[in-house]
Amino acid sequence: MTVSFEGRVAAITGAGGGLGRSYALELASRGAKIVVNDLGGDEFGSGGSTDMANAVVDEIRAAGGEAVANFGDISKYETGTSMAKAAIDNFGRLDVLICNAGILRDVSFGKMTEEDWDIIFSVHVKGMFNAVHNAWPHMREQGYGRIMLTSSTSGVWGNFGQTNYGAAKTAMLGFMNSLKHEGQKYDIKINALTPAAGTRLTATVLTEEWLDKAKPEFVTPLVTYLVSENCPDSGSIYHAGMGRYHRTALMRGPVTEVDTDEIKTAEWMEDNWDQISSLENPEAMWDGRTTQAEYDAARKK
Ligand code: NAD
User: Which end of the chain is more exposed for a tag (fewer CB within 10 A), N or C?
Assistant: First the structure.
């Protein structure tokens, strides 16, 4: 195995089922010691039990790996603290963090309640903050970290009935775009995933046939590589599911440069709209014209 996690410690939120469980089993089989966090509630965010996290810990141990359970709701700051503490107390470090815990509250916008909005932001966005904020000091101190955030195609392209979920999943991309800069000098890399897999979450919206075909195990190899020492990326979004893998990026169209001695009018914009709105030869920012070096040079020291 060239993609090894020997000596590495990984914490995974929502690892008691679905995709998170599959990541935990695979990373453990490659030598990582795992902190399995899970609330053990249902797919809409209700309830809670220790069973799901314990079951995955048992599976890892039965296969000869090392793991500990971390119970609780990642939308609470103290769960992020206890998860990082579990990694340090049991295994001495924290190298990999996968923010995976998630729920759905799908409903058309007119029928959405304030609670539907708040709980989605609590679990996905605040939960991500809680996990990363508590892992960060350990990763900085070690000079090493690999973080993967779980976004969604809903956060990139949108989806009917998911204004809450889609907005939260886009927020994760904004978080990544800024934090990648702060992690760079400590060798902390942070990337995002848009998965597609048959799990109890997707069972609420997709057909049996699709669910059967889209095994979480198709997603896991890409995630395994993405959080490994071998992967050079930071600040990237990848899609994985059902035998399809690709990178997704925010792109910028060609820049229309104007004479800055004169302010243009709205009519000028209208006249030149084809050129301004063009996406011909787009560039992915960061590795397009705005390279890391250009970014650094433009910042106040
Ligand atoms: P899943 O329901 O099988 O797994 C989610 C896990 O998170 C569950 O084990 C659940 O108990 C746990 N969890 C939920 N709320 C939690 C909380 N507050 N604290 C701790 N644990 C909590 O669903 P999944 O499909 O494996 O989803 C994993 C992630 O992938 C989610 O973030 C989801 O939004 C995202 N996602 C999944 C798909 C897909 O096709 N399955 C697509 C896009 C995004």
Answer: C
Split at pLDDT 50, 70, 90, the class of 291 is: low
CATH H-level superfamily of 9-248 = NAD(P)-binding Rossmann-like Domain (3.40.50.720)
Q: What type of residue is 209? A: E
Atom of ligand 1 nearest to the CA of 99: 32
- Lining ligand 1 with CB less than 6 A are 13-14, 16-20, 37-41, 43, 45, 52, 73-75, 100-103, 123, 127, 150, 152, 195-197, 199-202
Q: Find the catalytic residue in 23, 144, 165, 238.
A: 165
| 2-11, 30-39, 176-185: the lowest-pLDDT one | 176-185
Atom of ligand 1 nearest to the CA of 123: 18
User: Which tens digits make up the pLDDT trace of 273-289?
Assistant: 999 999 998 887 765 44
At 124-183, the pLDDT tens digits run 999 999 999 999 999 999 999 999 999 999 999 999 999 999 999 999 999 999 999 999
Buried b (16+ CB within 10 A) or exposed e, 112-133: beeebbebbbbbbbbbbbbbbe
23 is catalytic: no
Q: Rounded to whole angstroms, how far apart are CA atoms 215 and 205? A: 16
* Residue ranges of domains in the chain: 9-248, 251-300
Pocket test for ligand 1, best of 201, 210, 238, 239 (most atoms within 8 A of CB): 201
Q: Which atom of ligand 1 is nearest to the CA of 52?
A: 9
